[in-house]
């Protein structure tokens, strides 16, 4: 971030207008702006500091939306230099009041979903969404493991563990989905369902889950979880699958 806010820039004059003659001899105004491309809706939503769509937007005193972490860091930097707080848009003095703006985040999500915002801005936003979803899934997975094994301050509670594995699966965690499959084929905290459990295990094994590959190989090797013995499919998944031991017994 620049040490000093950008210099104030005055608004540009409106596009020049010309008289254009019609076939009937009358004149009408022709605005050169009509030749310009339609304004990108992302322009008014981009954070002036990060130059990206804000993931945690806040409205500042200058009326613009900023990424919360970025604008707070700017305030801290200015204080450290004993420099005044100025708008990074107008360069005018402004207060430090920040108002959470979840409606802006919802608007951005809707615009991206409907392809009204595309390109680099949309890609960067979607990446943040995927990372947050993955982090949520991993956190839920840790809670589930705590309940399942009675560790990390959690009481042993298999039904509750299964519910948290389900939440992790819903958040997009491949590991969470594999654990749901394991619970279903083993009856861990839920009624056994070989069909549904094997479906989840098959999906996650293809997605790279070593646990799922291990369980599938074990099922075909010994004819477990409703599967017939199949010597060809017992080596399903990665070559390392047979060296893994599932958490649940």
Give a structural overview:
By secondary structure, the protein is mainly α. It folds into two domains: 28-117, Zinc/RING finger domain, C3HC4 (zinc finger) (Herpes Virus-1, 2-Layer Sandwich), CATH 3.30.40; 133-243, Serine Threonine Protein Phosphatase 5, Tetratricopeptide repeat. The protein is 43% helix and 7% strand. It has seven helices and five strands. The strands form two sheets. The protein has a three-stranded antiparallel sheet with strand order 4-3-5. The protein has a two-stranded antiparallel sheet with strand order 1-2. A hairpin with a 5-residue loop joins strand 1 (17-21) and strand 2. Helix 4 runs antiparallel to helix 5 (174-186) and helix 6 packs across helix 7. The longest helix is centred in the middle third of the chain and has 31 residues, at 119-149. The two termini are 53 Å apart. Residues 1-35 and 237-249 have low confidence and may be disordered. Residues 1-42 are annotated as: Disordered. It comes from Seminavis robusta. One of its GO terms (molecular function) is ubiquitin-protein transferase activity.
Architecture blueprint of SSEs:
Layout (H helix, E strand, L loop, with lengths): L16 E5 L5 E5 L25 E3 L5 E3 H13 L18 E2 L1 H12 L5 H31 L8 H13 L3 H13 L7 H13 L3 H13 L27
Antiparallel strand pairs: 1-2, 3-4, 3-5
Helix pairs in contact: 3-4, 4-5, 5-6, 6-7
